[in-house]
């Protein structure tokens, strides 16, 4: 009996996936991180302007919000770089270390997002010129370490900021904890368990990969899932274009959409409901999205109602910077 020949379309797709470039280089990752830091600086500047002089309550609210934003961004970026290094090795990470260290040595008061002293400045009294000369002459000729002084001032200012923010945060509701408990309660009712997924920009795809392995014993990875998602969306642009907007809030043009799909495949840009819909169509399975405060979203349920759904949880507050997805593993599934 003749052997069954492989499907040429499938073989070609596998070759394309196998030869695809790395999703994001370390340099690209750090470049994106710098852009995120610049964006945060712009946001902090806008927040500063909302705290009018003399309004101590508003000033404290802004202080707490800025500290939280900085903490969350640093945590997110640290997790992403740690995940990259764990996958690709740390040998390429030493190139920019010295440059980054030198940049960090420079103290700039503008580096501190909110400083209650700068918001209500009280200038220090000027010393008489003769007194300044006496102080300089009595210094024993030893030149002060200005670099160390700058670092000390910066460290102290940031510590003051953190202490103040922690005092403010102590009386606020921890939405991360509220959301976590709510989703765990939903998971218990659905007889599933939340499987934490690394917050590295690929969480949606890693969650789906885990679900495919759990329910269908299909082994795949982020690169393959991003590739097939981009290909499906490009081939069905009419199904997605009306629901996507560009950075100005307008509906995407075909050129915008092509760029969107290119970034989707080749970078660590976050995914959302459009990508989940594409994945459900590619793998011909429903995808359920469980979230706090809203009914479960069931994508392609009407099309593939006889198939076991892939189940993920959607978190708005876990990291504070945007969407995060975890996998919801069935409690009675022995496949781990």
From TrEMBL:
Amino acid composition bias (Low complexity), ranges on this chain: 127-137
UniProt biased composition (Basic residues): 143-153
Domain OTU: residue ranges: 192-331
GO molecular function: cysteine-type deubiquitinase activity
UniProt region (Disordered), positions on chain: 73-159
Any one GO biological process: protein deubiquitination
InterPro entries from the UniProt entry: OTU_dom, Papain-like_cys_pep_sf, Peptidase_C85-like
Acidic residues: bias regions: 98-109
Record's protein name: OTU domain-containing protein 6B
Gene assigned in the entry: OTUD6B
């Amino acid at each position: 009996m003749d052997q069954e020949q492989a499907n040429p379309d499938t073989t070609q797709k596998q070759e394309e996936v196998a030869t695809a470039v790395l999703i994001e280089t370390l340099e690209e990752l750090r470049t994106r991180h710098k852009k995120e830091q610049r964006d945060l600086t712009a946001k902090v500047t806008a927040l500063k302007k909302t705290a009018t002089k003399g309004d101590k309550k508003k000033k404290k609210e802004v202080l707490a919000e800025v500290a939280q934003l900085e903490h969350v961004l640093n945590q997110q970026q640290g997790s992403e770089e740690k995940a990259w290094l764990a996958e690709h090795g740390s040998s390429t990470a030493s190139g920019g270390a010295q440059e980054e260290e030198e940049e960090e040595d420079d103290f700039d008061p503008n580096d501190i997002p909110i400083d209650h002293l700068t918001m209500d400045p009280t200038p220090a009294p000027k010393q008489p010129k003769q007194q300044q000369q006496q102080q300089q002459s009595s210094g024993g000729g030893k030149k002060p370490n200005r670099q160390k002084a700058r670092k000390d001032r910066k460290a102290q200012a940031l510590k003051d900021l953190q202490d103040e923010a922690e005092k403010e945060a102590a009386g606020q509701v921890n939405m991360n904890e509220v959301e976590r408990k709510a989703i765990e309660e939903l998971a218990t009712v659905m007889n599933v368990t939340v499987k934490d997924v690394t917050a590295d920009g690929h969480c949606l795809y890693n969650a789906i990969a885990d679900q495919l392995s759990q329910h269908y014993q299909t082994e795949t990875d982020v690169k393959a899932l991003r590739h097939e998602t981009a290909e499906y969306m490009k081939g069905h642009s009419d199904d997605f274009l009306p629901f996507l907007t560009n950075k100005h809030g307008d509906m995407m043009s075909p050129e915008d959409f092509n760029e969107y799909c290119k970034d989707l495949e080749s970078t660590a840009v976050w995914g959302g409901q459009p990508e989940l819909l594409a994945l459900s169509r590619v793998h011909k399975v429903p995808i359920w999205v469980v979230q706090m405060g809203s009914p479960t979203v069931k994508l392609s349920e009407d099309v593939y109602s006889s198939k076991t759904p892939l189940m993920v949880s959607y978190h708005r507050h876990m990291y504070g910077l945007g969407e995060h997805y975890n996998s919801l593993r069935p409690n009675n599934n022995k496949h781990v």
